[in-house]
Amino acid sequence: MATVTFKNDPTSLSGELPAVGDTLPDFTLVDTELGEVTREDFAGKRLVLNIFPSVDTGVCAHSVRKFNKLGERHDDTAVLCVSRDLPFAHARFCGAEGIDRVTSGSTFRSSFGEDFGVTLEGSPLKGLLARAVVVTDTDHKVVYTELVPEIGQEPDYDGAEAALK
């Protein structure tokens, strides 16, 4: 079981991120229109999963903005922003920010957090998702992962983008 910290206090996660070389696990999320988002929706595209606790925090919001710009630079790549926020929060944020190069997915009625090993099992954020990035190739084989060690820290945007080259 992986661990991260929240304000320097360690907390365990529900498991481990998929490993480089693994096939990305299947998933079903809820999009901003209350429809389903699945791995198959991104067939033939490289996929960047930006996983975070809540779009209503500064670091999480900034990561969505940064990955939106990454999506603008890579036409053959889809960016999926994943949190336990309700779809309405994703829609509100992306609409207000003019974010249009990411797909938002809510885990509020799925096992995504457990399947990807990123559900926080302790801390005041218990039940939310840890901050992580997963990048796949067009066959959805994992080529890069990052579990950000401190929840309040930003992910390595350059590392994720380098995995796309």
UniProtKB/TrEMBL annotation:
Thiol-specific peroxidase that catalyzes the reduction of hydrogen peroxide and organic hydroperoxides to water and alcohols, respectively. Plays a role in cell protection against oxidative stress by detoxifying peroxides. PANTHER family: THIOL PEROXIDASE (PTHR43110). The active site is at 60 (cysteine sulfenic acid (-soh) intermediate). It comes from the Bacteria. Disulfide bonds join 60-94. The keyword Oxidoreductase applies. Homodimer. This is Thiol peroxidase. GO terms for molecular function: thioredoxin peroxidase activity. Keywords: Antioxidant, Disulfide bond, Oxidoreductase, Peroxidase, Redox-active center. Belongs to the peroxiredoxin family. Tpx subfamily. It catalyses: a hydroperoxide + [thioredoxin]-dithiol = an alcohol + [thioredoxin]-disulfide + H2O. The keyword Disulfide bond applies. The active site is a conserved redox-active cysteine residue, the peroxidatic cysteine (C(P)), which makes the nucleophilic attack on the peroxide substrate. The peroxide oxidizes the C(P)-SH to cysteine sulfenic acid (C(P)-SOH), which then reacts with another cysteine residue, the resolving cysteine (C(R)), to form a disulfide bridge. The disulfide is subsequently reduced by an appropriate electron donor to complete the catalytic cycle. In this atypical 2-Cys peroxiredoxin, C(R) is present in the same subunit to form an intramolecular disulfide. SUPFAM superfamilies: Thioredoxin-like. Its EC number is 1.11.1.24. Residues 18-165 form the Thioredoxin domain.
